[in-house]
Amino acid sequence: MKNDNLMKRFLAAEWSSLLILSLVMMAAMTIITPRFLNFDNQAILTRSLAPLLIVAFAQAIVIGIGQMNLAVGAIGGMVAVFFGGMMEAWGFPIPVAIAIGFACGVAAGALNGAIIAFSGINGFIVTLATLSIFKGLNLGVTKSIPFYEMPDALVWFGEARFGPFAAILIVPVICVVALAWFLKYNIYGRQILAVGGNAHAAELAGISNNRVTILAHTISGALAGVAGMLSVARLGVGQPTIGGDWLLASFAAPVIGGAILLGGHIPILGTVLGVLVIILIENLLVLYGVDPQYNEFFVGALILAAVGFNHWRSLRAEARLKEGKA
Amino acid sequence: MTDVALKIENATKRFPGVLALDHAALELRPGEVHALLGENGAGKSTLIKIITGVHEPTEGTVWVDGEEVTFKSPHDAMDAGIGAVHQERNLIPRFTVAENIMLEAVPTKRGQVDYAEMRRQAEYWLSELDLDIDPDLPVQRLSVAQMQLLEIARALSLKSRVLLLDEPTASITEHEVQVLFSFLRKLKAQGVAILFVSHKLEEVFEICDRVTVLRDGKNACTNVPISDLNRDGVVAHMVGRDNALSDLGHRAPVDAPTKLELKDVSTRIGHSNVNLHAKKGEVLGFYGLVGAGRSELARALIGADKITGGQVLIDGKEAKISSVQDALRKYQMGYVSEDRKGDGLILAHSVADNIGVTIWHKIAKFGGFVTDTMQRKSVRGFVDRLEVKTPSLQQTLGNLSGGNQQKVSVAKWLAAETEILIIDEPTVGVDIRTKGYLHKLIWEVAEAGVTVLVISSDMPEIVAVADRLIVMNEMQVVGDLPNSRDYDEMSQKIMQSIVGASDLKESA
Fold it and tell me: Which end of chain B is more exposed for a tag (fewer CB within 10 A), N or C?
């Protein structure tokens, strides 16, 4: 009886289908290529998982207020080269570079949020413009030349692993736990969800929509910056192209996880599993020797399938509710 | 042609938990302008949506030209010759006048849009209506009245024999109203049956031949010739009298210092010289027909809109309210919106979160730390006290009934410990039992020392609940009446205030 209930509650959770899907994918991959379980492969998998996890939440927090941040990749790339440059060209110690890089991400996000809040221009447009601005700044200053001479400690951290887990995975774990805590237990986190849920109601309840918009974008920028610096650690190079391919995955993961684009809901576990599924697809293609160029094809198909599934489920829940009431 | 263009009988529409329309009837004759009246929530828009095929009635029959019809979609209604101009504009601003008129019936030649033909047909309809508008002009460059007339032209281009006009004069000037009316008279002469929905009684008496009034989804009067009614009669039908209203008992007159005072207040929306005051612990009722500016005044008071002149005094001191946050945190003022779903509640979030939203900053520890347990502790008392029927505090609010949702929207302001509470339409869309309950609650809250401002279009409600009545009309206070709670006496006084004010305006 009690097990029954647990089972029901598990199936009712929005992330259950994703968890099953990723387990099935992993099982299938293990059966077909035992190489999958190989620690080397696992380390590769978790290493590519790490920055993307942070990127997904950089987007999810803005989706939470019903907006979009198209500039996540551009901020990540800009912070990444700045981070690399500070260490190679100026010889800054790692902690100082991290602190300044983080501040740079915060500033970029705050700028996005402030422009949106005070001008009233749609966030899509504003971040489309700043995407171009940040990216242009990055490429212009670096002339697209990467910074190769990264400190040994950073390179070591990027390559280290504990069993199957890449060491850099610790950063997204901290970020995601902190964010989940913030959204659930902090009044400002709750205000973000309240504004996303119904901006008018939140405003009438004394919550400043402008302040919340700036806050969400600032967090988004900070996370994008952290993801950028983590990518430098992962690659061992301060590459200007970092962040160039984040946009699709940044939306895909929260949406697959069950986020509502209108705002008001940020699925933490769902987004984590969304990233995992995306990475598994990538890994699957590599293990099978399929041209990785097909990657986006599968991610796109997955978005449609996942969103379709969620839609079907909410329609069914609605129908049941009606039946129950009639 | 039969002498009845459109007839509806027994029209009933049930939404989950709400009976929006209850055996309503209506008859439209060719060549008449028929007024459909009623206060907000009376069922007018539901009836219109049934006639235009947006909603299928739960029960009831519709005849067009004596033939029984069933509309599955708006398209069916259009095919049957029913054209409608809705309250919201349905024009595409960047399209030209011709493109907009012919939107539903784009002429084509060999699979391509035939612009020459489109222009020709559009010109025909424009000349038919004596409209001097260039068909190639983008609609966004027209005046509001021109757009309104254009919508009518579009409805007619579908060869409509029945025309529904929902508040066609809401956003146009007096002169433009006259243009519209002369045009309607012409359509009348051509045998078009026109249903005219308006809140402006002067217009109804000017243009309409017969009147149907809805109240609480039922017919208060049906197909009555306008010559049999005067203005008081129509208002009496609209306002009605709710006998089921619970007896609240006795309430002693309030003797306390003034809490809130407005001196010559004017607002951005158009209020001018508003003067009123409310005592601590007093229930001040605001009555007025729709559009009188009551909710707008409330929104300005709580900082959601701009006050442009005069003074607002709270506890005798001038209050500077520049944002909703100011109103709530500095002056403990709260506003329960009339639009629960639109700007009152977050339906996708839990009951606890919806109530907690106003007090997070108060219950938080260590600079912003709130747990569900802390929130539940602060919120539970209010949920119990208001008898909100919910399986748990974590229940998604959207799953509760309308009455319970309304209780939650009141609970969140009680939790905020407001000293001035504005409740806008406290009982719209809630059942009789909850209604009585909410009325008692308003008194309880006032007993506890809160100044309660109740805005309501339900005259029996306002007479039963308020200690004193402010009557508003066209953005002005036209009456400040002590309430004897004798319905017949008060309803007459209220109507005198409203009618007297418009008479005064007319003679001026």
Answer: C
Interface of B with A (CB under 8 A): 16-17, 302, 304, 323-325, 327-329, 335, 337, 342-349, 353, 356-358, 360-361, 364, 368-372, 399, 412
- Domain of residue A145 covers 45-244
Report residue B434 as tokens.
């909850």
Contact (CB<8Å) B304/A185: no
Q: How far is B302 from chain A (nearest CA, A)?
A: 8
Note whether residue A146 is domain-resident: yes
Residue B196, beta-bridge partner list: B35, B165
What does the alpha-carbon distance between residue B425 and residue B422 come to, in Å, rounded to a whole number?
10
The count of CB pairs under 8 A between chains A and B is: 78
User: Does residue B255 fall inside a structural domain?
Assistant: no
- Cβ <8 Å between B358 and A205: yes
Average confidence (pLDDT) per 10 residues, chain B, 508 residues: 83 78 92 87 84 88 90 86 82 86 82 87 84 86 81 80 85 74 88 87 88 88 87 77 59 87 90 92 88 88 90 92 89 88 86 89 82 86 86 85 85 90 84 79 91 88 90 89 86 83 60
Residue B102: which domain range? 6-239
How far is the CA of B279 from the CAs of B266, B401, B440, B444, in angstroms? Answer: 21, 34, 19, 15
Decide if B178 is inside a domain.
Answer: yes
A90 belongs to a structural domain: yes
Determine which of A198, A203, A265, A325 to mutate to test the interface with B (most B C-beta atoms within 10 Å): A198
pLDDT over threshold 90, residue A273: yes
Residue A115 lies in a domain: yes
Count of domains forming chain B: 1
Based on the structure, what is the number of domains in chain A? 1
Give the gap in angstroms from C-alpha B48 to the nearest C-alpha of chain A.
25
Kindly report the pTM of this predicted structure.
Answer: 0.76
CATH number at B185 reads 3.40.50.300
Residue B354 domain-assigned? no
Quick check: B349 and A194 CB within 8 A?
A: yes
Q: Is residue B131 situated within a structural domain? A: yes
Q: Which of B329, B348, B364 sits opposite A206 (nearest CB)?
A: B329
Structure ipTM: 0.74
